[in-house]
């Protein structure tokens, strides 16, 4: 006999309902904050495991202009210190670029707001004739990567831009590759642990250098 259903706990919203969109935005913000904190925590554990920085250095608040340090390393042959690398990696962990969540959302449509930000970022790179996020930020703030100036009255957080993930990944690979042989324990294994070198080896790239305190689910793909 079919049961007598009294009701179901499903609430539906019209496509453009303000309540639905607000809830979605808050949820996405919470997830982004949590994932960023976890990402930074894992990189910190890796550096601690390698013994390249002290606890005081790892817990330092960071550099006021990590984007300048990144651009400086990209355009020059002068290597950064491990402490500066840590400041730069934290900045990239906060600003790793947008990829449309293509790993898990193969059938979902991209967010119009995010795609607009990517379009703006590409236009900004073209405007300044740059190919990296760090150099573009420096150009927008009128800061010379090789100069002494580290601050600007111009904002960049309000530019409504999101750089493509592929641009940022290649940027970080380039920056770190220039330090191979110049910093102890910064080698290809370190780069692969942070960022998968290619699709084939990328599945468990984060295990290239095994850190006991870092545990990730089997579905996880890529580097830290």
Can you put this structure into words, describing what you see?
With 224 residues, this protein is mostly helical. It is 47% helix and 0% strand. The chain is built from eight helices and no strands. Helix 3 packs across helix 6 (133-141). The longest helix has 33 residues, at 18-50. The termini are far apart. 27% of the residues are buried. The mean pLDDT is 88.
Assign an overall shape: globular
| Alpha carbon gap, first and last residue | 54 Å
Unreliable parts:
none
Number of strands: 0
Briefly, what is this?
The chain has 224 residues and is mainly alpha-helical. It is 47% helix and 0% strand. The protein is globular and about 75 Å long.
Write the layout of secondary structure elements.
Layout: H1 18-50, H2 55-58, H3 66-75, H4 82-94, H5 112-128, H6 133-141, H7 165-177, H8 188-194
Helix pairs in contact: 1-4, 3-4, 3-6
Q: Which characteristics define this entry?
A:
0% strand; 224 residues; mainly alpha
């Amino acid at each position: 006999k079919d049961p007598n259903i009294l009701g179901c706990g499903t609430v539906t919203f019209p496509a453009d309902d303000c309540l639905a969109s607000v809830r979605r935005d808050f949820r996405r913000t919470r997830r982004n904050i949590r994932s960023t904190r976890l990402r930074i925590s894992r990189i910190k554990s890796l550096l601690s495991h390698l013994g390249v920085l002290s606890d005081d250095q790892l817990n330092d608040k960071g550099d006021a202009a990590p984007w300048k340090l990144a651009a400086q390393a990209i355009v020059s042959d002068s290597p950064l210190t491990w402490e500066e690398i840590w400041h730069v990696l934290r900045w990239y962990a906060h600003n790793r670029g947008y990829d449309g969540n293509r790993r898990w959302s193969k059938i979902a449509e991209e967010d119009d707001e995010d795609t607009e930000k990517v379009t703006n970022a590409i236009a900004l790179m073209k405007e300044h004739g740059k190919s990296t996020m760090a150099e573009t930020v420096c150009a927008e703030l009128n800061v010379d990567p090789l100069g002494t100036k580290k601050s600007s009255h111009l904002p960049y957080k309000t530019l409504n831009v999101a750089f493509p993930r592929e641009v940022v990944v290649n940027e970080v690979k380039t920056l770190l590759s220039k330090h191979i042989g110049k910093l102890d324990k910064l080698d290809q294994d370190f780069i692969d642990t942070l960022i998968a070198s290619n699709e084939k080896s990328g599945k468990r790239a984060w295990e290239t250098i095994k850190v006991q305190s870092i545990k990730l689910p089997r579905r996880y793909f890529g580097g830290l």
